[in-house]
Amino acid sequence: MTQFGVHIGEIKCGSAEVSIDVDPAKHFNHRDICHGGVMLALADSVLGVTGASVGAVVATLNFSMNFIKGVHEPTTLTVRSHIKHSGHSTMVIEAEMTDSKKHLIGTILTTMFVVDRFKEIPAKW
């Protein structure tokens, strides 16, 4: 994801933060707003990091995003996530996307499948 310009921020047990600096030349569509696919990719990128924060290797089963506000100018989009449920085979993660002015851009709700475990990362730390 670093080739896409995603930066990994703070990681805590059960939560994570990722961000991207929105560049209109790269990330805007023909209507001069940030493309929804860019926002979806950023939101999806936080999921693996969040799962890994509790030692889980995860794959997306279900992904839902509510687009609250469009992005019409250069900004930094940040997604902050937290685990709502962590079971043996599934995980539910919620997240919010904000811009650099702390405006809510979108909300995310996902169900992840636990594929494997990272032996070196404890489930609680």
Concise overview:
This protein is of the alpha+beta class and 125 residues long.
Helix and strand topology:
Layout: E1 6-12, E2 15-22, H1 24-27, H2 36-52, E3 56-67, E4 75-86, E5 90-98, E6 104-117
Antiparallel strand pairs: 1-2, 2-4, 3-6, 4-5, 5-6
Describe, in plain words, how this protein is organized in 3D:
This protein is of the alpha+beta class and 125 residues long. The chain has two helices and six strands. It has helices at residues 24-27, 36-52; strands spanning 6-12, 15-22, 56-67, 75-86, 90-98, 104-117. Strands 1-2-4-5-6-3 form a six-stranded antiparallel sheet. A hairpin with a 2-residue loop joins strand 1 and strand 2. The longest helix is centred in the middle third of the chain and has 17 residues, at 36-52. The mean pLDDT is 94.
Order of helices and strands: EEHHEEEE
Q: For the largest beta sheet, what order do the strands appear in spatially? A: 1-2-4-5-6-3
Strand content: over 45%
List unreliable stretches of 5+ residues: none
Helix coverage percent of residues? 10-25%
What is the mean predicted local confidence, pLDDT?
94
Q: Helix- and strand-based class?
A: alpha+beta
Main sheet specs: 6 strands, antiparallel
Radius of gyration: 15 Å
